[in-house]
Amino acid sequence: MAAATEEEAAPALRPDEIKAIPVRHPGRWIAAAIIVILAADLGHSVWTNPRFRWGIVGHYFVSSRVLHGLLVTLELTAIAMAMGIVLGIVLAVMRLSPNPLVSTTSWLYIWLFRGTPVLVQLLFWEFISAIYPKISLGIPFGGPVLLQGGANAWITPLVAAILGLGLNEAAYMAEIVRAGIISVDEGQNEAASALGMTRLQTMRRIVLPQAMRVILPPTGNETISMLKTSSLVSVIAYAELLYSVQLIYSVNYETIPLLIVASLWYLIVTSVLSFGQYFLERRFGRGASRELPPTPLQRLVRNFVTIRPHA
After folding, report:
1. Distance (Å, rounded) from C-alpha 43 to C-alpha 28?
2. What is the Cα–Cα distance from 158 to 125, expressed in whole angstroms?
3. Which residues lie below 8 Å from residue 87, measured CB to CB, with a gap of 6+?
4. 183 in helix, strand or coil?
5. Residue 241 near residue 229 (C-beta atoms within 8 A)
6. 239-256 confidence digits (pLDDT tens)
């Protein structure tokens, strides 16, 4: 009986459940309030300042000359990035080659194009006729010439822009791809060799698919950077977005509104590219973690559901 009485009394001696009280962070709310006030003040100043000429911005935002410049910018970005990615993969494989001549050639290319400004390279290709008035293709060292023509006829502003941007981008993509390749465990190569795969088959079927998770984020950043770097083509009078805007404000002298138009289009396209980059990274990162990261919409819904009960 005594033992039973002690067992019955034991639950009464247990302490009450601990009630968790969330820690308050007044500093965060104060900082958020300051940011909101400053942002609202800045937005009001920009919107009500008549010198921004928002009417002019709206008028030229969808004008045919601006849209044509935007289309040229997108085409130039796509072509230059495609050229840079393909050549960068080749250079990365060459850099990792056991052949010292091949690896040294790749290293010299990367050293040269990363070490000189892209603006200088664009100007160099634009004025290539100063050192090579004629360009010929054929067998070297006095062999038969297959094609020959003037440098100015072959190296148009479009070709100069593609060469300047694409060849420069290839040097950076080579280092990005090389970093992705060496991130793959060496055992993958050994296993592929044991299965009888050649070096090229191993690279194409085993290494590169796994390296994409490392290659993709900086490649997305390079694409966005290429979109903005394409504005440098305006120095060789190629009618991309910035040069199209410059042609307009050189006539009507509405410099600031036209620069705002160009900036808004760059922001819109950059946002679209960033959105696409996020979903590509999410797709290729499926095997890296047990759960995929939430999409922006899922994150927004989750934050709303979390904040709403406290409102």
Report:
1. 22
2. 10
3. 166, 167, 170, 173, 174
4. coil
5. no
6. 899 999 999 999 988 889
